Amino acid sequence: MIITKTPYRISFFGGGSDYPSWYKKFGGSVLSTTIDKYIYISCRELPPFFDHKYRIVWSKIENVKKINEIKHLTVRKLIKYNKIRSGLEIHYDGDLPARSGMGSSSSFSVGLMRALNYHQHRDIKGINLAYKTIIFEQKIMKETVGSQDQVAASVGGFNKINFLKNDKILIKKILNNNLKKLNSNLLLLYTGIQRNADAVASNYVHKLSNEKEKNVRKIISNVELGEKMIKLGNIDDFGKLLHDAWIEKKELSKSITNHKIDELYKTSIQNGALGGKLLGAGGGGFMLVYIAKEKQKSFLNKIKNITNIPFNFSNKGCEIILNSLKK
Questions:
Q1: Which residues pair with 158 in a beta bridge?
Q2: Angle between helix 235-250 and helix 213-232 axes, rounded to 10 deg
Q3: pTM over 0.85
Q4: Domains in the chain and their CATH numbers?
Q5: For the segment 297-318, what is each residue's pLDDT rounded down to a tens digit?
Q6: Could you give the residue ranges of the DSSP H alpha helices within the chain?
Q7: How many angstroms separate the CA atoms of 273 and 295, rounded?
Q8: C-alpha span between 63 and 46 (Å, rounded)
Q9: What are the C-alpha distances in Å from 86 to residues 58, 89, 202?
């Protein structure tokens, strides 16, 4: 049996510029971090004496005899992509809900990609794992997704990720004592709204390189500013920059926000938050709010039907935490 542990991510600045339709023309840049919340995937070869050849356990339990009978699209296509002929049992568990803006779809793909490759005695990790997952999601699955989530989940840590026009990806690790203070001033709030990131992103991604070019360039400029603020210890300015980035992001499409999200953001600002943003493509999921630690308790007492998820920044990408394969 193999078990992989893959982190979720928080993207601060630069989202949108990581879509190939943008960075293949102009280049892109993102500032993001992984956190100590994870997707766990277990994978083992299924003995031949069962009535089924594949057992997939997620929100459903699938026991099927043929690959094409597997309903979980990512699982089905990843097994085919890796040309695995043996029977498999795959279990999925996540610390956070799916379709919530935390990069869960790509974290799942990264975790299963590594597990299936390890099952075939190939250990693909780090940036090579990211490249392979990007190709799978964008070319095989044909999803409207960017390239930052796969990199964050594969590599881990607080990073500035640059996307070059020639498809090369450069990663700059940010190691700074000011990150601890930044972490303490951030709240991760679950709106309870689940959405399909592919569907939301499809509403505006094709417009990024024309009428929305000005917005995306402004969003990219925040990456450099954010990095400098962390370096200099101007953490409150980082919070204010999150507000500016949220205003720019909302200009990309009307589908990015809604009344409930706008009211939550308004309430956070009224109670001392300096900024924040909805994570992921938009439409729902998690909202990140920058509010001084001493003001957080009072604010949380005023919001209803909103769940706060305590978290810490993490340094590791996708890991194999159990391997019982015979050498």
A1: 33
A2: 170
A3: yes
A4: 2-174+314-323 (3.30.230.10), 178-312 (3.30.70.890)
A5: 999 999 878 899 999 999 999 9
A6: 20-26, 73-81, 104-119, 126-135, 148-155, 178-184, 197-202, 213-232, 235-250, 259-270, 293-300
A7: 8
A8: 11
A9: 20, 10, 36
